[in-house]
Specification:
Elements (H helix, E strand, L loop, with lengths): L2 H17 L6 H4 E9 L9 E2 L1 H12 L6 E10 L2 E11 L13 E12 L5 E8 L1 H9 L2
Parallel strand pairs: 1-6
Antiparallel strand pairs: 1-2, 3-4, 4-5, 5-6
């Protein structure tokens, strides 16, 4: 895959799975094992997930925010990775860690580096996201 193809591949994954909620599309993008190398605040931080566990992660993560949307603002490709900078927005439509649904639109930004294996599948990530900002938005009355 060329660098541009790797970027398009990762953008497709983010669009189909995380924005679109097409959990079954994970099969098109992911390696057999997916390692969450660094993602502070994510309950799956540090874990290695098989396809079924990753799909459950997507379901649980999207449940409070079914209309979530990722807007990729920057993307860089290396020989075995793609880094993206993104903005996220979503309506808080379901309970989240003790916060009942508020109906508010929440926003955050972050950056993710996706690892690509030799079979051209996504096999893990390293991420930073403004989760503190989300909790601050949830606490506002």
């Amino acid at each position: 895959m060329s660098p541009a193809q790797r970027i398009d591949f990762v953008a497709g994954f983010v669009g189909d799975v995380w924005t679109g909620g097409r959990v079954e599309a994970c099969d098109e993008y992911l390696a057999a094992h997916y390692t969450i190398h660094h993602d502070p605040g994510d309950p799956w931080d540090g874990q290695v997930l098989d396809a079924a566990a990753f799909k459950e992660r997507v379901r649980q993560s999207r449940a409070p925010f079914p209309d979530q949307s990722f807007d990729i603002r920057h993307a860089l490709a290396g020989p075995d990775s793609v880094a993206i900078g993104w903005f996220w927005s979503a309506t808080h439509a379901g309970d989240l860690d003790g916060f009942p649904a508020t109906g508010r639109v929440l926003r955050m930004s972050g950056a993710t580096v996706y690892s690509i294996d030799t079979g051209n599948r996504i096999c893990g990530h390293w991420q930073v996201a403004d989760r503190l900002g989300i909790f601050q938005q949830l606490q506002r009355r």
